[in-house]
């Protein structure tokens, strides 16, 4: 029996910035909390569906996970985050998906935006400065990557 070639699931994420209240040109990024033990805090993200590009998928996932639908897209990163799923997770996948390959979109929202999480897929959220990301994102490689993304996103601001 031939083995299927392993592939990476195409995914998209949004680096959503808002102006810090009373801080002028300082920005915070939205992190969402997934109800799991490891790597619980992350940017809004999800799989790219048929007939979607990364931007459309990222904005759909943002709306599904946070209730936010009105944003201004300001750019797209050239960076891609690719990782392999842990073996413990892959045992439960009946497919040949090895991991994820995530593309990133940058967006801006007003400081008074209302975030709504479903308490199932996402059970919390926080707006955080780039300097404080490590308080939430424990995996160093991912935290460093998100810090670079935020730094890049700020360059696109009007």
Quick one: CATH superfamily?
A: Nucleoside Triphosphate Pyrophosphohydrolase
Strand composition percent: 35-45%
Query: What is the rounded Rg?
Result: 16 Å
Number of domains: 1
> Can you write the helix and strand succession as a string?
EEEEHEHEEH
- Structural category is alpha+beta
Describe this structure in words.
The chain is an alpha+beta fold and 158 residues long. It has one domain: Nucleoside Triphosphate Pyrophosphohydrolase. The protein has three helices and seven strands, in the order ββββαβαββα. Strands 1, 2, 3, 4, 5, 6 and 7 form a seven-stranded mixed β-sheet that branches. A hairpin with a 7-residue loop joins β2 (27-33) and β3 (41-42).
In short:
Helices cover 21% and strands 36% of the residues. The protein is α+β, with helices and mostly antiparallel strands. The chain has one domain (7-155): Nucleoside Triphosphate Pyrophosphohydrolase (Alpha-Beta Complex).
């Amino acid at each position: 029996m031939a083995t299927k070639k392993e592939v990476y699931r195409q995914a998209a994420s949004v680096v959503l910035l808002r102006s810090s209240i009373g801080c002028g040109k300082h920005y915070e990024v939205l992190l969402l909390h997934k109800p799991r033990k490891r790597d619980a805090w992350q940017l809004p993200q999800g799989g790219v569906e048929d007939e979607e590009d990364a931007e459309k998928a990222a904005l759909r996932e943002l709306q599904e996970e946070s209730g936010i639908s009105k944003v201004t897209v300001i750019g797209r990163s050239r960076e891609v985050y690719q990782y392999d799923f842990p073996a413990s997770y892959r045992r439960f996948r009946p497919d040949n998906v090895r991991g994820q390959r995530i593309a990133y979109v940058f967006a801006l929202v007003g400081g008074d935006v209302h975030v709504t999480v479903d308490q199932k897929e996402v059970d919390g959220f926080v707006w955080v400065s780039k300097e404080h990301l490590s308080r939430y994102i424990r995996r160093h490689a991912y935290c460093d990557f998100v810090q670079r993304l935020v730094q890049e996103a700020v360059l696109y601001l009007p």
